[in-house]
């Protein structure tokens, strides 16, 4: 898509202003570029970094998130990680909660109108968003804003004036709008307001850099356009790739069940990281690890030289688990995984009390929450996926008498069932 921008490339040594890049600016550029999809325009960002270093004035770095769901997974943290890296360089991070834009509904990547959230849904989701994001960002160095602060006072007259600053023809260059229009799929007029309002956020916050996923590029460029319209220096934009999920194929998504929620327990989180492929591991290292690229590349060379790739995967699993829990929890999760891999029982498993002895095994699995139904329980037994006190079951007609049993389904589901 032609976004109407001339994007200069970064010269080898000087910025576009002619000044040589210092080592500090080169380092900041390397941190910015790490894992990113696009940095637009890169020469302008180098110039902003040079000015910030020269004047001691931090740059303003913005990330806007609509609280469309109460929980986030580690795929969402790819952009948050980049914010933290830039935050650690001394710049101001603005965590913008789109409580106003959520009322419109972001049409990005949609082939139909996105239903807007109610104010009650937005409030409930926003309450947990920042708490979870703070597991990555430094809360003491983060500015939290809500775009209703300036969007509501804009009023109808201000909205009309804002809408006059962009054309319908340019709006229709956006892929999802163009495809829906070509297909005859309805586009509501209010959907045009979303990119305008997101762009106006950059004006209100005087943003120097805005981050987002690759699917947000049009909205981020809108911010540059509107800042120029309002007489501000246009922001640069940084797009980050969408993280592939556990399957290594589709982007991480709860609907595809290939995700790791950042509020999942430490043992589950650790085990899920270890389940990814060796190839995907290195992409996750780049996008999720806080280790330097030099350290990651050295580790890659060790693995290429014969070191077991599982060692590197364990290091990544411990780093991610420690970030969302603690170093001690990550160590315990590693021991739990080792124990499970040897056929042992985890240290902590759910305790379940049932009545009705003697009870059929399928009914017990269903009642203990280890299988969704008796038929699924029978299928698991047929597949050799059920153990009681360490022994694999094959008899679907088995009835357990009163007592306490350690029941295992698959590799990860355990329960200590007391049957009375």
From TrEMBL:
Q: Which reaction does it catalyse?
A: tRNA(Tyr) + L-tyrosine + ATP = L-tyrosyl-tRNA(Tyr) + AMP + diphosphate + H(+)
Source organism, top-level taxon: Bacteria
Give a GO biological-process term: tyrosyl-tRNA aminoacylation
Task: Return the annotated region ranges for Disordered.
Answer: 1-21
> Could you cite one Gene Ontology molecular function of this protein?
tyrosine-tRNA ligase activity
Position of sequence motif 'HIGH' region: 67-76
UniProt EC number = 6.1.1.1
Protein family membership: Belongs to the class-I aminoacyl-tRNA synthetase family. TyrS type 2 subfamily.
Q: How does the annotation summarize its subunit structure?
A: Homodimer.
Q: What does this protein's UniProt record list under function?
A: Catalyzes the attachment of tyrosine to tRNA(Tyr) in a two-step reaction: tyrosine is first activated by ATP to form Tyr-AMP and then transferred to the acceptor end of tRNA(Tyr).
Q: What is this protein called?
A: Tyrosine--tRNA ligase
Gene name in the database record? tyrS
């Amino acid at each position: 898509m032609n976004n109407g921008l001339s994007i200069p490339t970064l010269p080898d040594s000087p910025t576009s202003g002619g000044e040589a890049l210092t080592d500090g600016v080169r380092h900041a550029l390397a941190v910015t570029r790490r894992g990113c999809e696009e940095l637009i325009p890169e020469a302008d960002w180098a110039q902003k970094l040079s000015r910030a270093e020269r004047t001691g004035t931090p740059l303003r770095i913005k990330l806007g998130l609509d609280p469309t769901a109460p929980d986030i997974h580690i795929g969402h943290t790819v952009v948050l990680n980049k914010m933290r890296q830039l935050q650690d360089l001394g710049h101001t991070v603005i965590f913008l909660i789109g409580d106003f834009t959520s009322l419109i509904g972001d049409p990005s990547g949609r082939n139909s109108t996105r239903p807007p959230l109610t104010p009650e849904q937005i409030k409930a989701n926003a309450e947990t968003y920042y708490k979870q994001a703070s597991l990555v960002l430094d809360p003491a160095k983060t500015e939290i804003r809500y775009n209703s602060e300036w969007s509501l006072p804009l009023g109808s007259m201000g909205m009309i004036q804002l809408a006059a600053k962009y054309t319908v023809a340019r709006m229709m260059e956006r892929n999802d709008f163009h495809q829906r229009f070509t297909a005859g799929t309805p586009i509501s007029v209010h959907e045009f307001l979303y990119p305008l309002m997101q762009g106006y956020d950059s004006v209100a916050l005087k943003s120097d850099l805005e981050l987002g996923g690759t699917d947000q590029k049009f909205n981020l460029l809108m911010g540059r356009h509107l800042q120029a319209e309002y007489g501000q220096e246009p922001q640069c934009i940084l797009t980050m790739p969408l993280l592939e999920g556990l399957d290594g194929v589709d982007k991480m998504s709860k609907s595809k069940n290939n995700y790791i929620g950042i509020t999942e327990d430490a043992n589950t989180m650790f085990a899920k990281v270890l389940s990814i492929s060796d190839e995907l591991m290195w992409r996750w290292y780049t996008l999720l690890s806080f280790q330097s690229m030099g350290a990651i590349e050295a580790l890659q060379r060790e693995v290429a030289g014969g070191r077991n790739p599982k060692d590197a995967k364990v290091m990544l699993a411990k780093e991610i688990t420690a970030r969302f829990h603690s170093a001690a929890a990550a160590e315990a999760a590693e021991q739990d995984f080792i124990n499970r891999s040897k056929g042992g029982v985890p240290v902590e498993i759910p305790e379940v009390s049932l009545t009705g002895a003697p009870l059929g095994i399928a009914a017990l699995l269903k009642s203990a929450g280890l299988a969704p139904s008796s038929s699924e329980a029978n299928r698991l037994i047929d597949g050799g996926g059920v153990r009681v006190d360490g022994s694999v079951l094959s008899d679907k007609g088995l009835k357990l008498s009163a007592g306490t049993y350690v029941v295992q389904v698959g590799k990860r589901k355990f329960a200590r069932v007391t049957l009375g």
